[in-house]
Write a structure and sequence with these properties.
Layout (H helix, E strand, L loop, with lengths): L1 E2 L17 E13 L6 E3 L10 H7 L3 E5 L11 H10 L4 E5 L16 H19 L9 E4 L26 H17 L4 E7 L6 H10 L6 E6 L3 H18 L6 E6 L8 H14 L2 E4 L12 E2 L3 E2 L1 H10 L4 E6 L10 E7 L4 E7 L3 E8 L3 H4 L2 E9 L12 E9 L6 E8 L4 E8 L14 E5 L4 E3 L4 E3 L18 E6 L5 E8 L3 E12 L3 H6 L3 E6 L2 E7 L2 E2 L6 E9 L2 E8 L1 E2 L3 E2 L3 E11 L2 H4 L2 E4 L4 E3 L16 E3 L4 E8 L3 E9 L3 E7 L2 E2 L5 E3 L3 E9 L2 E12 L1 E10 L7 E4 L4 E2 L4 E3 L10 E3 L9 E7 L3 E10 L16 E7 L5 E5 L9 E9 L2 E8 L23 E9 L4
Parallel strand pairs: 1-19, 2-16, 3-4, 3-10, 4-5, 5-6, 6-7, 7-8, 8-9, 9-10, 26-29
Antiparallel strand pairs: 2-13, 11-12, 13-14, 14-15, 15-20, 16-19, 17-18, 17-20, 21-34, 22-25, 23-24, 24-34, 25-31, 26-30, 26-34, 27-28, 27-31, 32-33, 35-45, 36-38, 37-45, 38-44, 39-43, 39-45, 40-41, 40-42, 40-44, 46-56, 47-50, 48-49, 50-55, 51-54, 51-56, 52-53, 52-55
Length: about 900
């Protein structure tokens, strides 16, 4: 047995400590083809652009459950508006909750009695199927869900039920309704797939449902239920259901557990990986539950195009390939312990393992490493995917270690993981070793977390809040250390002081994890709560803290501080003698400090052999490669990289290659007008590109010969792609659109509001392009419209703008909520401009329902565009 000799974290064990737990990955035991089914989403897509197609494709979202087209259950998430962007982004199936054509929960279906209510529903089902039949090939990706949690809704005991008798006690009316609706859907669309019964748990009575369905030839095409219990219950329930199938005598059905997880789990990689491992092991599809706002992939997406830690977990999970292998956890199938999932891809000669859920130390052991695949040495790359909050943007995973290790004589390698965080997930990628270049350094050298509840508070108004989410309080939100601190608010003189100790002189990245509830009285006035940062009483900075849709929904505000080696006091205060006073009300969870040294400022590395490959596989026989190998790209073969950018703007993308051919580049699905990369000899091709803040899809596609692609390196840069910025108030407003000074955080204090409610109410801005071609149009906007809700979900509305360039046909753009009209975000879209002056026109009007003959009566489709502050125009690429 051979150990990885590296420090994976800053903590060390103590002498005489117990043997660390072991997570064993058995590469010799195949447990079936990799499925990828855990990356599903309930109500996670609002419409095309919210979230961006990059986020959808990069998260490898496989299934989406969403509302019936034009349903009034929530704003957005209309099935037939979600369907094309989802399928075009690689999605498999859209499950239509047909019951969500009604308001309320339990569903408020009209009628004097059960038969009348069912008759009304059947008419609505007929219309829904007829609408789906207009969708061309997209309809093949639809699965109909006729009833949702029928035991608590239409066939339960409540006011709005069929006859106030639960089908669990007397199933006759539900079974008859299932049969009628099944035949109705199949009669209209013989190729339709139908999912059911979609109960809130896997009841024992489902066996009786299967018996009835078999006897009456109405067996669902997909078996669906919800798992809002624990990951351990997933494996148990799937096994229990499979036994029911055997006893009833029906063939195994595909399964979609189309709601899983709780607030305490969602957004937290170390929690969600426990669900993922159970779901993948069970080879089923499953959708993250919808507790909060739609359009953010169940607390995975930030703004329109950024991902948090949970997004990066699913990005890593979706890039697994080949077949799964047996993983033996130290506490098998036990929630809130170390769990994992692993794959082996023989064609790629690569194994990937994802694990997490435990703080402290553990050994990750790979057994039965095949010398024919890997040789006598493996390259192990170890990454951490940290928790960054529900609304906190995350950079790409941290590289903890990258090393060649000799495989033991018994075919094993052990990776000692020290100082793990239970909120993080971890990834190990194993490849053949011994040929690549110098192993990459860790991407961060020193970092430390300081909890707010351990900081010193002086002044009035202090509160220590918690415990927040926990295994016994899964409805509450996860919080680092389970507690947070309040007191920094309007009228306060509070100061929260963190005593820190740093190893050397330098610049440090400082991340303040905080939250304000956007609809809270003190927060409503200004929006983002401002607080004041000082180091040792000096160098004041004003910080604006993140807003959320509820209390204890965490994001982070980032800055840098200069520190000398040793101890310092970092303060967050509600007053500053030089800068002013706090407006609002915020809670603080923690601060993270990390040394901004050459590890951090070095270019981000994206190895080709770890990319998503099409028509290609890695080759590990190249000593000149940077990682374990390189990827030969013949004509048409491609490597796709998910590249992070901290903000919208220029970056230098360096393509390192070993020669052999040429390739083209595309960015976010668009082929770029740049010189081809590659050549006959080893080299590097640099190109300046405009990257959108968050997630960018960069694809390298072979065009001639066979380019040996080594890696991409990405560095923020400036000076080549210079934006031209136009204040919205300098444009022309028409109709009711007007310039406003109501929003203090608008640049220059002015913005344009009331665009829309008809095409006459417009903003027109003339912009100048120095050359023709593709440009990035960056719109700084705000949007806080919210519809009245009938349930626990806040219902923010994604406003839209119809953008016309030079009088051409309008393109509809969706803008996610910014949680307050005084909170401005950037949204970038590509546009084609001619050389010289171009006229951009922004309008909006309320969208009708699918058939064009009715409108939403619950104010769920806004007639207005967002407030527009300014517009930036930047070439997408250098000349």
């Amino acid at each position: 047995m051979v150990f990885l000799a590296t420090m994976l974290a800053t903590t060390t064990g103590t002498a005489g400590a117990a043997e660390p737990e072991r997570l064993v990955v058995d590469l010799g035991t195949d447990t079936g083809p990799f499925h990828g089914g855990a990356s599903g989403s309930l109500y996670g897509i609002y419409g095309d652009g919210v979230p961006s197609r990059n986020l959808l494709e990069g998260m490898h979202v496989r299934t989406v459950s969403t509302k019936a087209q034009d349903g009034p259950q929530h704003p957005g998430a209309d099935a037939l508006e979600v369907l094309p962007p989802f399928v075009d982004s690689g999605g498999k199936d859209v499950y239509i909750y047909m019951t969500d054509i009604y308001r309320g929960f339990p569903y408020q279906w009209p009628g004097a009695d059960g038969p009348a209510r069912l008759a009304d529903f059947k008419e609505k089902i007929r219309k829904q199927v007829q609408q789906v039949l207009t969708m061309g090939e997209y309809k093949d990706h639809v699965v109909y869900v006729p009833f949702n949690e029928p035991e608590g809704n239409m066939f339960g005991t409540g006011e709005w039920s069929y006859n106030k008798v639960s089908w669990l006690n007397d199933p006759q009316h539900y079974f008859a309704a299932w049969k009628e609706v099944y035949h109705l859907i199949k009669g209209l669309d013989p190729d339709a797939r139908i999912a059911g019964p979609n109960t809130s748990v896997l009841y024992d009575q489902i066996k009786g449902f299967l018996q009835y369905a078999k006897a009456n030839d109405v067996v669902p095409d997909v078996m669906a239920w919800h798992e809002l219990s624990s990951p351990a219950a997933v494996r148990t329930s799937v096994a229990k259901y499979r036994q029911m199938e055997k006893e009833v005598g029906i063939d195994p059905l595909p399964i979609n557990v189309n709601e899983y997880g709780h607030n305490y789990h969602l957004s937290v990689p170390g929690q969600v990986i426990q669900w993922v491992s159970a779901i993948e092991e069970s080879k089923i599809d499953a959708d993250l539950a919808y507790w909060n706002i739609d359009g953010n992939l169940n607390d995975s997406a930030v703004e329109a195009n950024k991902g948090n830690g949970q997004w990066w977990l699913f990005n890593a999970y979706g890039q697994m390939s080949g077949h799964t292998v047996r993983v033996t956890a130290p506490h098998p199938n036990q929630q809130y312990t170390l769990q994992g999932v692993a794959t082996l891809d023989e064609d790629k000669k690569q194994s990937r393992a994802l694990f997490g859920g435990k703080s402290g130390d553990a050994d990750v052991v790979f057994e039965n490493i095949d010398p024919k695949l890997f040789g006598k040495t493996v390259r192990a790359t170890v990454q951490e995917i940290p928790w960054t909050g529900q609304v906190g943007d995350s950079a790409q995973p941290l590289r903890l270690a990258d090393q060649d290790i000799e495989v033991g004589a018994d075919g094993t390698v052990t990776l000692p993981m020290t100082g793990m965080n239970e909120m993080s997930a971890y990834q190990v990628i194993l490849s053949p070793g011994g040929n690549g270049g110098t192993p990459a350094e860790p991407s961060v050298s020193w970092r430390k977390t300081y909890e707010a509840e351990n900081a010193t508070y002086t002044g009035r108004g202090y509160s220590k809040n918690g415990p927040e989410g926990s295994p016994s309080q899964v409805g509450k939100f996860a919080t680092s250390g389970m507690y947070n601190v309040g007191g920094l608010r309007t009228g306060s003189d509070g100061v929260l002081a963190f005593d820190v100790d740093v190893p050397q002189d330098g610049t440090y990245d400082l991340s303040v994890f905080a939250n304000s509830y956007n609809l809270y009285d003190l927060v409503k006035e200004q929006g983002p709560t401002n607080v004041f940062l000082r180091v040792d009483g000096k160098d004041p900075q004003e910080l604006r803290l993140p807003l959320g849709y509820k209390w204890v929904v965490w994001g982070h505000t980032d800055t840098t501080v200069k520190l000398t080696a040793g101890k310092h006091r970092i303060t967050l205060a509600a007053q500053d003698p030089e800068l002013g006073v706090t407006k609002g009300d915020a809670i603080i969870d923690k601060i993270d400090l990390s040394l901004r040294d050459e590890h951090v400022t070095a270019p981000a590395i994206y190895e080709a052999e770890y990319a998503t490959l099409s028509g290609a596989r890695p080759d590990y026989a190249h000593p000149g490669a940077s990682g374990p190998g390189a990827v030969p790209l013949a004509k048409g073969a491609s490597a796709t990289f998910w590249v992070y950018a901290p903000s919208d703007g220029e970056a230098t993308v360096s393509t390192d290659h070993l020669g052999g051919g040429r390739a083209s580049l595309s960015l976010n699905g668009e082929k770029l007008d740049v010189p081809k990369v590659g050549g006959g000899k080893k080299g590097t091709d640099d190109v300046r590109l405009f990257l959108s803040g968050g997630i960018n899809k960069i694809t390298v596609t072979g065009t001639s010969g066979e380019l040996l692609l080594d890696r991409l390196r990405v560095t923020p840069s400036h000076g080549t792609l210079v934006p031209k910025v136009y204040q919205a108030e300098s444009g022309t407003v028409s109709g009711a659109a007007k310039v406003t000074e109501s929003y203090s955080f608008a640049s220059g204090g002015k913005a344009v509001t009331d665009i829309g409610d008809g095409k006459a109410n417009a903003l027109t801005v003339d912009v100048v392009a120095e050359r023709p071609g593709r440009h990035a149009l960056t719109i700084r906007y705000s949007n806080a419209e919210q519809a009245p809700a009938t349930h626990y979900n806040p219902d923010p509305i994604a406003r839209h703008a119809d953008l016309s360039v030079n009088g051409g046909p309008a393109r509809r753009l969706l803008f996610p909520t910014t949680f307050h009209f005084n909170n401005f975000w950037d949204l970038t879209v590509p546009v084609t401009l001619k050389k010289g002056t171009n006229r951009l026109t922004f309008t909006a009007e309320e969208l009708p329902d699918f058939n064009g003959d009715t409108y939403n009566q619950y104010d769920q489709r806004s007639p207005y565009a967002p407030v527009i502050d300014r517009i930036g125009v930047t070439p997408l690429t250098q000349k």
